[in-house]
Design brief:
The protein is 14% helix and 46% strand. It is mostly beta strands and 71 residues long. The longest helix is centred in the middle third of the chain and has 10 residues. It is globular, with a radius of gyration of 13 Å.
Length: 71
Amino acid sequence: MASQHISIGFQASPPIALRVSDEELEKFKDSLGGEGWYVLEGDDGRVNMNLQHVLYLRTEKDDARVGFGLK
């Protein structure tokens, strides 16, 4: 199962970064804009967050890089 590296930004705290499965990422994106608590299952553990405090979600490509970003 493929996983993606994401960062989640909040109103009053620093962002968190973690790896999640593609399926979990889609479920999380569907829940954004909602209310209440959400449990996000990451590759390294579980994150409980209040959806009302999420400001942004950043996803990163898993492109292979060597040296100074040369392809």
